Amino acid sequence: MNPSFFNRILVSLLIFSALVGVFLFLNQSPLNNSPNQCVVDENSYCSITLGQELVYVRFLQEIELEEELQVQISLPKSHFLRSAWVQGVNMYMGKTPVIINQKLTIEGGEGENSYQGVLFLGACSEPNMRWQLIVQTKDLNQTTQVFLVNFKTYY
């Protein structure tokens, strides 16, 4: 066969691969582009303003890998937790569900739906992991809304 034929095929494959890469980069999941995001601070707390109300997430201990982590998710009274999971941002680690073990009643916290759950973060080859806790809610009209809680782990 003709070597120029193989060169044309190779160039075509490289161009096609580059186009697919650009397409995938520009069409990332809408979860990564949501305005409803916050970053966990040094107190293991993160809040998002939802109109006049607040959505907040609080880790009940220091965030560590391969340890049971307790998390509290508080939503306005008009929102109910649909699901929550954690996923890696800079390395794919799959979707780790947050297991909700109780709905809390907060004394004096009238107008809040608060949940407590458990999650586990796996260790991997990346020493500086970026994570996202995705919180899906539904409101009284059954409209789904997504909130992103960003945090990091180091080892």
Structural features, described:
With 155 residues, the protein is α+β, with helices and mostly antiparallel strands. The chain has 2 domains: 1-32; 34-154, Immunoglobulin-like. It is built from 1 helix and 10 strands. It has one helix spanning 3-26, and strands at 37-39, 45-50, 53-59, 68-76, 79-88, 95-97, 99-104, 112-120, 128-139, 144-154. The strands form 2 sheets. The protein has a 5-stranded mixed β-sheet with strand order 1-10-9-5-6, with no helix packed on it. It has a 5-stranded antiparallel β-sheet with strand order 2-3-4-8-7, with no helix packed on it. Strand 2 (45-50) and strand 3 (53-59) form a beta hairpin. The longest helix is centred in the first third of the chain and has 24 residues, at 3-26. The chain is elongated and about 75 Å long. Keywords: Membrane, Transmembrane, Transmembrane helix. The chain crosses the membrane at residues 6-26.
